[in-house]
Amino acid sequence: MMPLAQIQAIPQGADYIRILPELILSIFGIVIMVLDPLVDEEKSQKTLGLIGFIGTLAGLASTWYMAEFPGLAFSNTIRVDGFSVFFNFLVIAIAAVVILSSFEYLAVQRIRAGEYYALILFSVVGMSVMSSAVELVLIFIGLEISSISTYILAGFRRNEASSAESSLKYFLLGSFATAFFLYGVALMFGATGSTNIDIISQRLLASRPEMLVYTSMALMFVGLGFKVAAAPFHVWTPDVYEGAPAPVVGFMSTAPKAAAFAVLLRVVFSINVPGRFWFLWVAAALSMTLGNIGALVQNNVKRLLAYSSIAHAGYLLVAFAMTTPDTSLNGISAAMFYTAAYAAMNVGAFAVVSHLANAGERYVNLEDYEGLGRTSPLLAATLTVFLLSLIGIPMTGGFFAKFYVFSAALRANLIWLTIIGVLNSAIGAYYYLRIIVAMYMRESRKEVPVGPISLGLGLALAISFVATLYLGILPNRVLQISQHSAHELVQAAPGAAGVAQNPRPIGSTN
Question: How far is CA 383 from the centre of its chain?
Fold first, then answer.
């Protein structure tokens, strides 16, 4: 029960404060759309991009302010807690970095910028709704808002047939996936009489779940598994990533994944469905294995990173296999930390790819990176750090991300899944090192123009670089936040009394 003094301190408009980031991002998106026809095309990239970037900064500030007013809003459909604030902050920060890296890209590709920046903001609105919603129908609405925006962004290189194919394939397969999710929601309503996660959890505690509930969970996982590019729902990923604009791929591979994982964490760990879900174990093992094997034979760097994205979805899904009360907190916090670390290194890697691609994205093959260590030492060194983090080398965020996930899996007695994960990490090192070898140990066989790094791109790379090293050198603060947020998520669920109040932290030796 909330103390009376705290209730009195909450303003009357608390419902709107608890969706303040979504309101601010929507307003900035609308402003960009209104100004787009009024701004000269040559100036639109920087002018409207700057407005979009300011919008993300305002969104981050409003998220910080929103965190001071935790609780439910709009008839118990939105919950503001440490968990939702963490993912809100993460997806908005990703959007800010992507916008910075897009200034130069849009100018080089000669793409009109207005709707591009507006769509990124509107997409983040949907992801923020997904992170905060505790109502399955509202989660579906947020998923659709996010998806429609990214369908359009994937085809933004309008003069390229591969980009149109990318958008159409993403739209068709994505529509099927969201239909599965909606069908799962309908079955859950049929089984429990509600689509509110808290009420569903209470009713499942009161009686033994029917087979319909397990079917519903499986169908919802199909929809969310598509969004996170988990096997066997990953087939769209390489083609879509290859055809979409490089900064958009950096956005698609991180922000929608973070939001989808936030929903999956709420569904798996807040709805009291007893037993472990074997399909999460299978999806994790398949994603790691198929992703890494597929990446081994790729020469196109965007396709290589697409398969890498599938593999990392598998590493993350290892945390979801820990569904028992005594292991769930470590699983949730490990997944949250991994999501943040992966976002930092992958957005940075695609920012480098977008700069090197040049007009028409002509230079995205492995041979185009040969000799980059001599022609552009700073860019090569930055990309090397991101690749080493993706491998999981110490002193980078990727190392601790994998360490926490595998440590938590061992504590949950997921021995075979941990072995599969470690073996796949070793396999994955090969294709990341191929890029590093090409940059430093091979002579360039053709001339690839590498222009100067613009201010926006430099700032984007600096943010990603610092975040990657910070999470690898000083991970404790973010890990503490993720553990506290995980505790809030689990404790908010009905029947959480059985969860250990002070679980042994992941990575501890005592």
Answer: 20
